[in-house]
Amino acid sequence: MTGFLDKAYGLDGVDDTRDMYDAWAATYEAEVADNGYATPGRCAEALLAHMDRADLPILDFGCGTGLSGLALATAGFTMIDGCDISAEMLDVARAKPGLYRNLHHYDPANGVPFAPGDYHAVAAIGVIGSGAAPVEVLDQLIDALDPEALLVFSFNDHTLADPSFEGRLNARIADGSVELLFKEYGDHLPGRDMKSNVYVLKRL
């Protein structure tokens, strides 16, 4: 069961991405589970290791069906909001009672749906990369964070093959916008022999 995964990395533009994830919503969790989707758990544990408290509000940006939210909750986080561009994915997330405090549909044309001070941390797990959100979204997330707030995110092998993504990250580290607290290369989709980098940044 790899039909949508085969298509995901070739998407181009917001409309294509939204349409595919709407169509994928009903089978997404089964498909990624079949391939051992490991990045959400890795991101959640990395974020927890760099936060003093797990009861502070965090945003699951690009939450999809809620798999990333489940990983955050399993790690111990208790106040999680979610947002996504796919209404169908959000319907699946809403069916997980008690997981999210709030869930929002958002339009990328309007920028990221939060302001500095809203969240102590933002998770963008499997969100930015080839066939998904463009590299500019990394800038938008960083710029919307309060000083000292954290951002955890991942780049999979497809994304790491495009130097613009880590290039943009390294530029933001070099210009003093953020501090890199954590970077680790590990399993992403073992069933597809795919790995990912997990990063934790602190806004300066």
From TrEMBL:
GO BP annotations, alphabetical order: methylation
SUPFAM superfamilies documented for this protein: S-adenosyl-L-methionine-dependent methyltransferases
Chain ranges of the Methyltransferase domain: 58-147
Family matches, as Pfam families: Methyltransf_25
Domain of life the protein comes from: Bacteria
Keyword Cytoplasm: no
Keywords: Methyltransferase, Transferase
GO MF annotation terms: methyltransferase activity
PANTHER family: METHYLTRANSFERASE
Record protein name field: Methyltransferase type 11
Species this chain originates from: Pseudaestuariivita atlantica
